[in-house]
Amino acid sequence: MSDAPDQEFSSGLARIVTLGSATVLIATQTIAASVAGGWAIAGFLGLGEYGAYALEAIGLCLGVWAVVTFVRTALKNDPARPRA
Question: Distance (Å, rounded) from C-alpha 72 to C-alpha 75?
Fold first, then answer.
């Protein structure tokens, strides 16, 4: 018997786990840095509490956009993904 199907399954599972882990790591760092950057800029410019919230919300949106872009690109460039 051949071990090829088991290796193929584990290889696919390994890719999924790797992509998921990378996504969690990158999402956490990107979103935290974006929100913290908004907070820091608002504090530096003296925009007050509501200005800080606004810049944090903008940073959050930018961070989520960056993570979504990363995931789309990673899925598009996955070598095991069937091509149309």
Answer: 5
Query: How distant, in Å, are the alpha carbons of 18, 19, 39 from that of 6?
Result: 18, 20, 49
Q: What is the dihedral of CA 20, 22, 26, 27, to 10 degrees?
A: 0
- pLDDT one-digit tens code per residue, 7-66: 555 677 888 888 889 899 999 999 999 999 999 999 999 999 999 999 999 999 999 999
- Taking a C-beta distance cutoff of 8 angstroms, is the pair 31, 67 a contact? yes
pTM, rounded to two decimals: 0.74
Total number of residues shown for the chain: 84
Residue 34 burial (C-beta neighbours within 10 Å; 0-12, 13-18, 19+): buried
